[in-house]
Amino acid sequence: MTPSVRLQEMIRVIRSARTQGEERGIIQRECADIRSQFRQGDNGERSHSLAKLLYVHMLGYPAHFGQMECVRLIASPRYSEKRIGYLGAMMLLDEKQDASLLITNSIKNDLSHSSQYVQSLALCTLACMGSAEMCRDLAPEIERLLRASHSYIKKKATLCAVHIIRKVPELAELFTPSARTLLSEKNHGVLHGAVVLITELCERNPDTLVQFRKAVPELVQIMKGLVTSSYSPEHNVAGISDPFLQVRILRLLRILGHNNDTASDAMNDLLAQVATNTDSSKTAGSAVLYETVLTIMDINSESGLRVLAVNILGRFLLNNDRNIRYISMTSLQKIVQTDHNAVQRHRGTIVDCLKDQDTSVKRRALELSLALVSAVNIRSMMKELLIFLSVCPPELRSQTASGIFNAAERYSPSKRWHIDTILHVLTTAGGDVRDETVPNLIQLITTASELHCYTVHKLYRALIKDIAQQSLVQVACWCIGEYGDLLLKGECEEIEPVQVTEDDILDALETVLQSHMSSPATRGFALTATMKLSTRITDNVDRIRSIVSIYGSCIDLELQQRAVEYNALFKKYDHMRAAVLERMPVMDKNSPGHTNGDTSGEIKEPDTSKPKPVEAGLLSEPASQVCDLLDLLGGTDTPLQPSPAPTSTPTTTSSADLLDLLGGLEIKPVPTVSVYEKNGLSLKIQCDKQTETEVTVTLIASNSTQNDITNFTLQAAVPKSVQLQMKAPSGNVIPAHGLGQVTQTVLLNNPNKVSLKMRIRVAYSNQGAMHQDTVQIDSFPSAACQPSFSPL
Amino acid sequence: MTMHFLLLFSRQGKLRLQKWFLPLPERERKKIVKDMTTMVLSRKPRTCNFLHWKDLKIVYKRYASLYFCCALENQDNELLALEILHRYVELLDKYFGNVCELDIIFNFEKAYFILDEFLMGGEIQETSKQSIAKSVEASDMLQEVRH
Lengths: 792, 147
Hints:
GO molecular function (chain B): clathrin adaptor activity
Strand content of chain B: 25-35%
Pfam families (chain B): Clat_adaptor_s
Strand content of chain A: 5-15%
Radius of gyration of chain A: 41 Å
Largest sheet of chain B: 5 strands, antiparallel
Largest sheet of chain A: 5 strands, antiparallel
Domain AP complex mu/sigma subunit (chain B): 2-141
Distance between the termini of chain A: 122 Å
Strand order of the largest sheet of chain B: 2-1-5-4-3
GO biological process, one term (chain B): intracellular protein transport
Radius of gyration of chain B: 15 Å
Shape of chain B: globular
Oligomer: heterodimer
Number of helices of chain B: 5
Order of helices and strands of chain B: EEHEEEHHHEEH
Strand order of the largest sheet of chain A: 3-4-5-8-7
Helix content of chain B: 40-55%
Structural class of chain A: alpha+beta
GO cellular component, one term (chain B): clathrin-coated pit
Distance between the termini of chain B: 37 Å
Number of helices of chain A: 37
């Protein structure tokens, strides 16, 4: 019985094990047997024991106790033992193991062995697992073998040299001289190794690269020989003569020709020849063509050649072989920026590949299609992309959606088309879009003011159909809240009219609020929208009031807070409600409110520099009073631009409690100037310059009468170019006898640096009587911030 | 063609051959084998033979009951890698005569010896089938004679 059968017998036994446990038992017994064999020393059986151990190792069991045996077997004079010993070394030892150093000496000896097959073992092992130290030790030996021996050893020594250079780059100089001469070898194995070696040398050292550029003509000759040679059975693969060598040479030519005109010119004809003559019906030919295309695109080739290359890729796109279609698209992706027009010619085929079965091909086709979208083809491309979105695999949906958004943003032919496209994406794949889609879309909608009616109708219809897509629902709620009045009007130019009643709208919003499909953020949108509608509808305000008060006890903290504040708006601040909830101005893409990503639809500070004549008619009584206030200011003969009155409204974005803290803080000892004294109510002002354009003004009200002042409110107006933000007052009751104060902070931003003025209206009750008064502060000199004032 | 590793595994995910051209600790090798088998075995039929994994390109091909899987660097030619895998299968076929998975299981060391005549350090060392076949034959004879 030859020993090899014993190995096979063991394998058979192991495979017959029916359970993992049984297998483990068998393995344990065998390993014990192997260990005792190792201990016995030289008995002619060691190589088979090691072979068994290697099989066990491949199954995943530990085999480190075999490492020393490998060392011993490598040192054996018997070829069979050396062979398995070296194999074991490659499998069990790596450069991190100490034992690997022990075989350095054996390798050194075997490199000079009389038998080339022993030399081959040593070379192979060194190239597989040689550490940097081993490589340094043995490099001179390898270099000698490169030059002296015959082709069987030469080709292996060459690749060994490649490994040495990768491990110890400084040794590259040692091999550079021999590398050049190797190119004149006839043996393909050696030639291939030489090309690999030269490639490695050139990639690591730019000076060496310059040196080897002189070899371009020689390489071109070799290639030509291969391409035009007659059939050689030894190297032929599907009609191509040695495709492995051809690809390797093409790759080296690519490196040598890159960014160098002379070298590129020298290889121009050859590349054209290869590109035209290579038969690509089988993979081997396609591999060579592929490498040729890569080389053409990466060197300074003339435009005719580049067009030829792109056309080859276009032909690949129509190939039946899926692999070839795939790599064609990866290559086109790389050149779509630089050779855009050439790739555009194949756009139709690329778009067809969106329908391919293979997900990888689909992915590549998607990336390419998105790269090929331009202003000219946007409409047709978008049609295809939207069709793709509805059928594409789930892992590609978010990429498709964001690609569509980017393309729409850059090339949309009209605002309405843009909005329609985004709506289409939200309906099809709303769950896969990115978070910033919602604020982006809202911003887009506000800018398309002529389309508000159309947009809100479309969104309303989408909403009543399906409330599962959160982003769509959020945008729809926001729009309905903002433009609900337009929805109620019923007619709209671009869409068939449908009668929508106030109840319908409130029903829709309530459905969103109550649905378990709605996320907390969505419900926040719906609640705010409901609240906004209280100023846009006429009949159902009570219904809104009750919805809002119900959510005052909602478990969700955010919703509860909103509901409580909206309740307060109904009760205590009803006169402010319309102003607070009025139509939002057009949002700039870069305005602070926008980039904060504030998607909650919170009441934002309106931009006071934009006139809004349309909205004036929608405001109810209290807001128009504010308008009047500012009208007065606008009419003064100060250097202000004449334009319709802007509105500036006080905001109550945070709870009063929080601002009590902030309102009460007066850290710096700033001078307090009195601006109003009447009927026991005195108003003082403190000015704090924050930056060149920003000023914080604190208004302090105190009461010297016998009775408390109640329902105390302040309203303020400033010139048009100045932005004003009023924080909530610390309270609205001023205790009598000067026992307490009410403070309110106002932030002013004066970007145009006009002279600051402020008009303040106070309103309060004292002893049951309502009082109202106005005071104008005419100048806040920037230096000392000391206001001068004139009571009216 | 700088190959990082070459794996052969069955359709049940059992490893039949592993050749590593880079030094990696044992733990990492086991993880890579697991990742590869999971990724390749979950591929649907009629999909292309190329995958992306970390920063490597994975090329795989199924021959009967064995998957041949190799990892390439980014600038390597995938189509040529398919040809390399095919060449290796041809070499095995010539040596064993109508090779099947069992041949590779019971004679795994021979499969390695053949591979070591074809690839070295992740690169092709010989492009002629006959030349490789001759070398393997001669080595086998040497083994027998000495033994």
